[in-house]
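Task: encode each sequence below as structure tokens.

Item 1
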Amino acid sequence: MPRQPTLQQLEEAKAELDRLMERDGEDTSGNLDKYHGRISAAREEVARITAQLKKLGILPYTERERISAELDEAFPNAAKGVEVVWNGKRFSKRMKPRSKSRSGRTVYTWDTWWDCLGDAVEVDPEQTAAAAELERALNEKFPNARSRDTVEHDGKKYVKRYAPEQMSNSGKTVRKWRTWWEPV
């Protein structure tokens, strides 16, 4: 069974990463990838030790990490860009590459988190009905409108927006798009 990591091991891993970054910055060989593998491994080691220390309760989770963990548990199949309402606030799932291949084309690991978009708004049924009617009218009048197309209806301008609503299991293909019209 592997030993539990310590704060000293985390400091040593951070020092090694700093040393490699400094050597990479001072390198004049012209080989841009000379320390790439070692720096990537050192970054992963720091991330691994930090995650284990947080899991063991030695290091505290940040508020963002705590909320993201709770939202991931509540919405395990949420795709990138999906907005949800949780505890009276709106959140959107975000992703960015944590590690990539040297070419940058292949992503090995992803960082995911949830951004708070603000308080959830109480919806007035009359406003909802009016918005649905406007949406229907705009879709009928402009059936071929594309994303970011600006149109004029009843003297007001609107722009069509698209966002992924449902993604494939791989996360690479959009299965279903959500569309809406925003006033300009």
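Item 2
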Amino acid sequence: MRSKTIWKRTAAVLLSAGTFGICSAELAAASDFVETSGDVLLGAIPAIAFGSTVYKQDYQGSWQFAKGFLANQAVTQGLKYAVHKDRPDDSDDHSFPSGHTSTTFQAAAFIHKRYGWEYSIPAYIGAAYTGWTRIDSDKHYVEDVLAGAVIGTLSGLYFAEPYKDARLTPFASTNSLGIILTMQW
């Protein structure tokens, strides 16, 4: 049992380090604060989402995050190489969809579904800001960022299941308002 826990924690550290390694390569090429801040969030939001599963010793959540992350990357990178859309700054033809945006929204959506909407608000704000930095830095058009947000959100939600805990969720319909209490054990 102990060796299994050590292996999982080691894998978590290596995945987080790899995420930050990818981010640091992006940071070296970034030239201004706005672009750099989006690059930092590209590494930070997924690392925090994955790190939260390790901190809580929620290894089922770690696996769910990893599946969503890998599916998101496969779809995003596959579309980039299939579509060949030029970037606004003409640096290459991998503009559609935005990988920064899909990655950060995947992590935010995972946090939302796994741990609750109240924990995901900062992640969604960071993901939206990351999308804006890509437009502001002339790396993407609005439609690239919107597509990345949709792909990331869907992949984050698809693979995640709510954490075993009590959860309050507000709801509204045309005839009523209320709060739903959900418990999983």
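Check on item 2: The longest strand covers residues 166-172. The chain has a mean pLDDT of 85.
End of task.
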